[in-house]
Structures are given as C-alpha cells and as structure tokens.
Amino acid sequence: MTSASPTLEVIRPGDDRYERVRHVYSATGSPAAVVQPRDARQVPEALAFARAQKAPIAIRSGGHGISSIATNDGGTVVDLSRLNRVEHLHGRRVRIGPGARWGEVARALHPLGLALSSGDSGDVGVGGLATSGGLGLLGRAHGLTIDHLVAAEIVTADGTQHRVSAQEDPELFWALRGAGANFGIVTAFEFDAVPTPDVAHASLTFLPPELSGFLEQWGLTLEAAPREVSAFLYIAGSAVHATIVYARADTTAASAALDPFAALPGLVGAQAQLVPYPEVPVATGAPHSGQQQLARTRTGLAVHLDRETSRRIADLVRSVDMVQIRSAGGAINDLPAEATAYAHRHQNFSVTAVAAGPARALLDAAWRPVHERMDGMYLSFESDHTPAGVVEAFPEPTLGRLRALKAHWDPDRVFTQNFDLSAPGIDPARTRASD
Ligand SMILES: Cc1cc2nc3c(=O)[nH]c(=O)nc-3n(C[C@H](O)[C@H](O)[C@H](O)COP(=O)(O)OP(=O)(O)OC[C@H]3O[C@@H](n4cnc5c(N)ncnc54)[C@H](O)[C@@H]3O)c2cc1C
C-alpha cells in the first residue's frame, strides 16, 4: 500500500475535516481516504495513491453527480475542490479549475461581461458537467457548455499529464467533450466564454386544466421561439413551474418572445425581469450530507413533444415525484453529431423523471412508455447504469470510436464510475427500449 507524500492532503476517518468531505449531494459515503491535491501538479500523485489502495476510486469536482457518485465506502476519493480558480486569460478566453462551482463561475465572469451556459444549479461543479455536456439556460442561444471548450488538461490513467485541444491530441479532446470521465482526471478547462449582458429571466406557474395538451403546446411554443429563449419545466402533481431565459437585455424583444408562453392554458403566476446572468444558476452553498440520496432518475432526449409523447409524459407525472423537461435544440443542434462525444444534435428536449420516495419502486414501469418515445440520452441526468444505457448515451458510430480510445487510454479500467465504456455486455444493437 502506497502512503501519501507529506505534502498531499489525505483526510481519513477520525480527522476533524472528515465529516465535511465524506458525503456528496446524492449519496452518503464512508471512504477510507479523501485526497485533496493542492494543484494540478499533485493530481498524478493523488491518482497513484488512489490506485495503490486497490479499493474503489471516486473522482470528485463539485460533488453534485447524478450519473456518477463521487464518494464510496472504504475506497479513495480524489477531491478536486481546491482546483477551483477562475482566471481570465485574454479576450473571451477563460481558464477554470474543475473544483469551481457554476455559480462561482457566473459571478467571476460577469464583471468581464461574459458568461458560460451551464445549467439551472449554481452548486453543480465544473468537472462533472464540463466532461459530459452542459444543458443550460443559455443553451438554445449559445450551445452546450462543452461547445465552448477550446482546450483542457488531463491526467490519464498512467499518471501522465496532457494538454488537449483541436491541435493537441484531438481525438482525446473529442472524447472529453461528452465522455470525459472515462479518460482521466481533467485538471483545467479553457473556454471561450460568450459576451452576455443582462438577460430576461421569467418564472411562470401553471395549473393546466389538461396536462397532456399543455405539454404538446409547450413543445410547439418552444420550438417556434427564437433561439435566445431557453426554458426548463418542472412538473410535480398538478403544478407546472417554468423557468425561461431570454439571452439578451432587450425588454421589447424578450416580452414578445415570452408572450406565447404566458398565453398557455392555466397560468396562475408570472414574473419576469432583467437580471445579471449570475442570478440564473441558483446556488445554495449547502454542505453535502447525501441530501438527495433517495432520488432515482430516468432520462431521455426527445425530438418533439408530439401528442403521443405528451400523453405518455402526463401519465408518468402521476406516478413519480417530478418530471423535468429542459430545452435543447437551437445552437446546440448547429454542430454535427460527430463534432463531440456528446452526439445528440437533433433533439429539442431532455425529459427526466425523478422518484425519491415510494415512487422509486414504480419508476421503471412508469418510465417505460415514455422511454419508447425517446431518442438518445444525456447521461448526466441518469442515476442508474446499464450497458444498454451506455448505448443510448453514445450511439454508433460514437460508441465504437470511444471504446477504441478507452482501450488505448485506460487499459486497466481505472475510470469506470460514470457510464463505463468498457463495461461488459455493451451491445450496440440493444438499447433499454429494445430489451
Ligand atoms: C441539482 C442538480 C441540477 C442539475 N442541473 C443540470 C443542468 O441544468 N444541466 C446539466 O447539464 N446538468 C445538470 N445537472 C447534472 C450535472 O451536470 C452532473 O451531475 C455533473 O456530473 C455534476 O458535476 P460535479 O462536478 O458537481 O459532480 P461530481 O459529483 O463531483 O462528479 C460526478 C462525476 O463526474 C466525473 N468527474 C467529475 N469531475 C471530473 C474531472 N475533473 N475529470 C473527469 N471526470 C470528472 C466523475 O465520474 C464523477 O464521479 C444537475 C445536477 C444536480 C444535482
């Protein structure tokens, strides 16, 4: 068993700091050691330490994983929270550590007049989201978070450090943008951020008289909206809450774009205002105690919320605790499917079912009819891993290309925690819908 050098911070049970670092948002844990590299140069040592323990390894940035749980019982956690700098390099170019949270990133970029679309939560970490996609509230206007990545630094399984970009190891750079967790530990991301003055931010609440018809109209309204509009729906019981962002500080254009949404049936509450973008990704800063440990999710992508899909989602709402429908499309679909390892460039919606209580027992049965209407999956919203799920997240020819890269860069299968491309039983001919 390798011991850590005197300078590598290792937190073990019994240490005063242990309670603060053992858990994550979606799980409690009791790791034997949490190693906290001070900077990127210490990450190879942290990885070597973790590998030498011959026990489970978790890579943690913000600790908000759903598709991969960044803690374990009896293993090692490589905790990157100290690699959290947000630096302005020049022009629109920024360099961000994986341990920064998206709320902090928004606040740091705002004085520069810049923003990066990430998601609805400011507590989510940069490392997990920027290696898988980033479906955010500026998404239809600006694309996915990974679409703004111009270079990254990564420590691969053999402990070597690489800078990757379109010019340097371009295949690995391609793989990082969607399947990054399979290839190593990203220690820095360089993005070209987008000039973003204030944005219009609307919160609408509906009690729709008939949910299925409402969803169909919501889908049509969103697809017809200008691409400055991105919108997320949260449906629980009979209440539908919408968060809508118009990505420019133009109140006339924003209200014209928002009016069709406010005209949908059952509106009971509405507010809209121009806000600085940092007010969009909501951050609580709450310490991690496994607060969402009971939640299980199923997720998929949809091209349209057509009548049949909407009917099935309305049925699903009756069986689970929440359904979330996030907009995709717009600038996200400007790139071809082969541009990044995230290959879903024709869908307009992400649909996620959340079950946290007794509904967990019903989740698979309730999800199945909706799943049959789905076309691909964004892995970051799925709480359970199956070989068929890997096929949905990475459709061919992406999957074959990724699996060849995985065999090259991670032959010992060190990084298997997040939709493992080397898992046995992956059959490109089978998805969960065909099982
Ligand atoms: C409340 C909430 C809201 C969310 N909203 C959105 C949203 O609107 N849009 C969206 O796109 N996603 C959203 N997500 C999903 C989120 O993007 C993923 O869960 C993401 O993995 C979290 O990143 P993290 O760094 O906090 O995760 P962590 O728990 O730290 O890591 C999760 C996994 O990512 C991998 N990983 C983390 N850091 C690195 C790294 N540096 N290098 C390589 N692999 C790494 C590891 O496999 C790790 O186990 C949301 C999640 C939550 C909990």
UniProtKB/TrEMBL annotation:
The keyword Cytoplasm does not apply. It comes from the Bacteria. SUPFAM superfamilies: FAD-binding/transporter-associated domain-like. Transmembrane segments: none annotated. Pfam families: FAD_binding_4. Its cofactor is FAD. Keywords: FAD, Flavoprotein, Oxidoreductase. The keyword Oxidoreductase applies. Residues 27-196 form the FAD-binding PCMH-type domain. PROSITE patterns: FAD_PCMH. Belongs to the oxygen-dependent FAD-linked oxidoreductase family. This is FAD-binding oxidoreductase. It comes from Microbacterium soli. The lineage of its organism: Bacteria, Bacillati, Actinomycetota, Actinomycetes, Micrococcales.
